[in-house]
Amino acid sequence: SLTSQDRLHRVTTPDVIAEHGTADRIAPIAHAVWLAREIPSAQLWRARGEGHVSVLRAADEALEWLVERS
Length: 70
What we know:
Layout: H1 4-9, E1 16-21, H2 29-38, E2 42-47, H3 54-57, H4 59-68
């Protein structure tokens, strides 16, 4: 049986984006760093000063970050 980590290595979708708030007190940024490291095509976008639901307030900034890398 494959572990979760084995499954992550099988993700082949181009440009997986892991977005995470640097001030998240529920899930530490280290979790996102690990996830981005384990998925070969992943990039990590850190939403500086944002908390757990950072994508709601940082959507425009996240989209700009994506456009710059496309």
